[in-house]
Backbone:
């Protein structure tokens, strides 16, 4: 992660004292065997990035090690995070780190909270603020409501929330400051999803505890299968890959025949998928006791993604993507109020959306665009965003239930992610492919929340 070190170079907790990753006890991830991360690290482009990180900061942090399984994305991520934290912008550096703490705390991510507490102090932040949100200036405390909504129910953000923060007074925000804060909040909500989704371990010298719950025993098997998967389980997993390949082939063929599908039918398919997604819930068998270093930054800790499985409660209202798009609306608004960041965010969205190695498990030469689009659109679906030109029947065809459960958990309740949730989906796929899913998930989630936030800003301005 780009958190310390020279301005636009990869990170470390502090200069010097770095160790070879092989000397670290459990490796960067609870879910991914260290051997696979190091083996993938031999790829020249990734190897160069990790050397640069090591030379720059004396170590390579765990997020960088795992994210670096996809070097093209990691490079784009670094540039964006560099701009958010290190380069010129409306907010002073210490407040940027405090906003990161507030965002990560909503998902109980002590990995990010602990890290940014250290960074906050390093750039001259007041140590008293770290006693809890109640000790921070009122201007920062006023972000609490929009932080809470963007983390859990972004569809509830309205122009009134924007207006309340911008109203004239001693603690008011400028529009430019607020846009930077909104980008930081959505960035760190989504990065918390990545930390939990990939089972990122705490740094060996980090006091903040773990970004995920106490790890279960490591799986040293590769591909990313469950430890207990015996002969019949392996056969079933192989069969799942073949079924997915066949479904992709059939869908590609049927697309040629679907030109006559009406808008009403497309809308019905979306509403059906959105309704079904409400029944996809994570396991509740997770210890969610908040550590004190996180709890002190959280108000209303019970507030979370709405559980729509209760009878009589409604799903998020549908947000028609065509009415407020990133390309036509969000991008230009951010670039106007916070120059350069819009372009870097757009590049990051494009890189991950188009990232492909044309492989699926043991198959090569595969067009995976349909699968990547299904994952992206399913994330947006659980946040109520609908694309008029997308056939949501493809989601049911391409995303098995265990994958849907994983996506919904990591996107909406990341702190409930378990190793079992991770190992249950795509059992015959490589760990790097599962990390790829997490990158898609991270960026789709961030874009969804940003669209709701920026739509509210636009409504305020018009």
Residues:
């Amino acid at each position: 992660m780009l958190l310390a070190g020279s301005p636009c170079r990869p990170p470390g907790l502090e200069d010097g004292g770095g160790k070879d990753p092989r000397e670290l006890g459990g490796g960067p991830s609870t879910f991914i065997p260290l051997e696979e991360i190091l083996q993938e690290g031999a790829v020249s482009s990734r190897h160069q990035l990790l050397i640069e990180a090591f030379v720059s900061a004396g170590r390579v942090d765990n997020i960088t090690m795992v994210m670096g399984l996809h070097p093209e994305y990691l490079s784009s991520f670094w540039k964006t995070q560099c701009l958010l934290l290190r380069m010129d912008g409306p907010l002073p550096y210490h407040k940027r780190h405090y906003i990161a703490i507030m965002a990560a705390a909503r998902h109980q991510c002590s990995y990010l909270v602990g890290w940014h507490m250290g960074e906050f102090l390093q750039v001259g932040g007041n140590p008293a603020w770290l006693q809890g949100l109640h000790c921070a200036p009122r201007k920062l405390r006023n972000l609490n409501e929009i932080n809470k909504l963007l983390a859990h129910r972004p569809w509830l953000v309205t122009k009134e929330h924007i207006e309340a923060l911008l109203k004239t007074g001693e603690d008011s925000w400028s529009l430019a400051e607020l846009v930077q804060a909104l980008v930081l909040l959505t960035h760190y909500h989504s990065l918390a999803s990545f930390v939990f989704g990939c089972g990122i371990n705490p740094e060996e010298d980090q006091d903040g505890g773990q970004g995920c719950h106490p790890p279960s025993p490591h799986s040293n098997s590769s591909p990313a299968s469950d430890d207990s998967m015996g002969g019949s389980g392996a056969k079933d997993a192989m069969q799942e890959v073949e079924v997915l390949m066949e479904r992709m082939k059939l869908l590609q063929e049927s697309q040629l025949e679907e030109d006559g599908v009406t808008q009403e039918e497309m809308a019905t398919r979306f509403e059906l998928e959105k309704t079904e997604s409400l029944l996809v819930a994570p396991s509740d068998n997770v210890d969610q006791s908040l550590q004190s270093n996180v709890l002190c930054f959280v108000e209303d800790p019970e507030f979370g993604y709405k559980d729509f499985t209760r009878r009589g409660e409604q799903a998020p209202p549908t947000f028609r993507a065509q009415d407020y798009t990133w390309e036509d609306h969000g991008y230009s608004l951010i670039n106007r109020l916070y120059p350069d960041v819009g372009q870097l965010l757009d590049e990051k969205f494009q890189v991950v959306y188009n990232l492909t190695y044309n492989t699926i498990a043991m198959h090569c030469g595969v067009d995976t665009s349909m699968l990547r689009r299904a994952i992206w659109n399913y994330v947006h679906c659980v946040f109520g965003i609908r694309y008029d030109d997308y056939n949501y029947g493809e989601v049911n065809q391409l995303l098995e239930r265990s994958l849907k459960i994983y996506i919904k958990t990591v996107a909406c309740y990341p702190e409930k992610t378990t190793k079992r949730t991770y190992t249950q989906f795509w059992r015959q796929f490589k760990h790097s492919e599962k990390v790829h899913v997490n990158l898609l998930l991270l960026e789709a989630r961030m874009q969804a929340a940003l669209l709701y936030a920026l739509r509210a800003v636009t409504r305020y301005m018009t």
The radius of gyration is 21 Å. Residues 435 and 450 are 22 Å apart (CA to CA). Confidence is low (pLDDT under 50) at residues 2-7, 9-25, 208-223, 307-312. The beta strands are 319-320, 359-360, 363-364, 385-386.
